[in-house]
Amino acid sequence: MENKINYSRQMQKIIEQIGTQGGRTPRLLLHSCCAPCSSHCMEYLREHFLLTVFYYNPNITVTEEYRKRLGEEKRLIAAYNRQVEEQDFAGMHSSAKANPIEILEAPYDPDKWFAAVEGLEDCPEGGQRCTVCFETRLRRAAQAAAEGGFDFFTTTLTISPLKDAQRLNAIGLRMGEEYGVTWLPSDFKKKDGYKRSIELSDQFGLYRQNYCGCIFSQEKKN
Ligand code: SF4
Questions:
Q1: Where do the structural domains in the chain lie, given as residue ranges?
Q2: Is the pLDDT at 152 greater than 90, yes or no?
Q3: Residue with CA nearest ligand 1 atom 5
Q4: Is the CB of 185 under 6 A from ligand 1?
Q5: Does domain 25-221 have CATH number 3.40.50.1000?
């Protein structure tokens, strides 16, 4: 059986190293698919990094759905930033020194995404179409991270129990090498991360979609 890499532990080690080094807080570009998935990731990472959420999701076929998810992402970031302003972390997991969060929205280009997955329309969820989808989004994230001079980049996608963290991390590492920016390994679902994202989604009343994003995943749910 294939040996799985513990990317959660790898991230932990990097964060511990950052903590012992002192100096400036590193900048992290966090690719985010939606507010519910990013809720725990942001709550955890904002204590260790200066976070910019990168919203690039051309896989979301329906424009209204794309806008709705983006709107929820912005609403959650605003709520987190209010907590920072008010220094009111009651009820939060860890409260030490959360940093404010910024958001960077990439142009919405679903045509480009459809071109990338052409011929893979009938693949089951989790198959080759998803691999191409991950790569499309993480390539753009790596490019943005390099252009913006970020210290690290990563994605919220590893919080989903339906998404293969081994595959996502392998792609992220490769994209990081290609664009000369450091991939922060992650498996956010671990250590009750997924459970925490459900709690936070309830707490903030976040819209939780019942399909991944593309028209093919939506058709499967209908
Ligand atoms: S199911 Fe999700 S990850 Fe897979 S191709 Fe569709 S949007 Fe992308």
A1: 25-221
A2: yes
A3: 130
A4: no
A5: no
